[in-house]
User: Which sequence fits this backbone?
């Protein structure tokens, strides 16, 4: 089963998926999808959000524990986010990883379609590189389980073999560095969680969905159980003006933008729509050629198209 970890979160989103008169914006975004596609879109969006939040949690750990970072911090915390999702060896976490790899591919495709300049000077690796770096760790841990993700990215066999050692090195380095900061006893860090009301009407339902899905609460619970952070760190969900997430060391505050949930949801919903259109007048083969990664990830939903 792919859906276990996020089942509570899914239950939070699904009530918004009913279609009737007076539909709200999130409903409108999903209204023409099948229930299976809605489930897959929801799972995809929440999985990607989890990756982003754990990326920001990585920045939080670096600044709160004053950890050394050898190399680019953005790459390092992508690695940590991936390792944290890999560590429990739970199906739903693994699915969140696979979905996040596809999320970077979607993001790269959107940038390419908009003919945006590739920011080679940027703090982050390029989206497609972020996908490859994640998949390297994933196949480094379990080449069989994540084979399809590596196949979809056409990662060479020789690179997959190198990834075994890279995964082990990354795991030992990060978890070794964090070991002195592990939570002990029954103490749990107290976070200040705040889901702020957005001003934009089109984000209102997404804000409700994020709160019902307990996006911030899930990250708080994970971090509180694992690491001896000082109380009072703020986890805030808000309207930001862009699909993103941030960590502010100065304010001890992680911010999750509702636009991120909206972006992933709309992007995948549009992908499904394109697939439907394409299958109407073109051979099914063309659809699967065009989006090999998602054919695998979304399984039965795309197979129907
Ligand atoms: Zn970052």
Assistant:
């Amino acid at each position: 089963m792919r859906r276990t970890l996020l089942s509570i979160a899914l239950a939070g989103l699904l009530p918004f998926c009913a279609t009737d008169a007076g539909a709200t914006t999130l409903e409108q975004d999903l209204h023409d999808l099948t229930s299976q596609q809605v489930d897959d879109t929801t799972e995809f969006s929440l999985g990607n959000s989890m990756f982003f939040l754990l990326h920001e949690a990585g920045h939080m750990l670096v600044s709160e524990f004053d950890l050394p970072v050898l190399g680019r911090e953005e790459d390092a915390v992508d690695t940590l986010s991936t390792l944290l999702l890999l560590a429990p060896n739970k199906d739903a976490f693994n699915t969140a990883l696979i979905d996040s790899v596809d999320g970077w591919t979607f993001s790269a495709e959107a940038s390419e379609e908009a003919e945006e300049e590739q920011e080679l000077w940027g703090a982050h690796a390029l989206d497609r590189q972020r996908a490859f770096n994640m998949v390297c760790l994933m196949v480094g841990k379990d080449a069989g389980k994540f084979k399809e993700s590596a196949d979809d990215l056409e990662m060479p066999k020789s690179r997959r073999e190198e990834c075994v050692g890279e995964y082990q090195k990354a795991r030992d380095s990060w978890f070794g560095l964090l070991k002195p900061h592990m939570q002990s006893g029954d103490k749990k860090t107290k976070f200040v969680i705040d889901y702020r009301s957005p001003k934009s009407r089109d984000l209102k339902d997404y804000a409700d969905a994020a709160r019902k899905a307990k996006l911030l609460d899930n990250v708080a619970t994970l971090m509180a159980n694992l690491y001896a952070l000082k109380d009072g760190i703020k986890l805030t969900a808000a309207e930001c003006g862009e699909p993103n997430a941030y960590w502010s060391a100065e304010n001890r505050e992680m911010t999750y933008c509702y636009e991120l949930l909206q972006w992933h949801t709309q992007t995948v919903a549009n992908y499904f729509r394109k697939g439907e259109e394409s299958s109407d007048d073109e051979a099914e083969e063309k659809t699967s050629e065009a989006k090999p990664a998602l054919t695998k990830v979304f399984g039965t939903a795309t197979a129907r198209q």
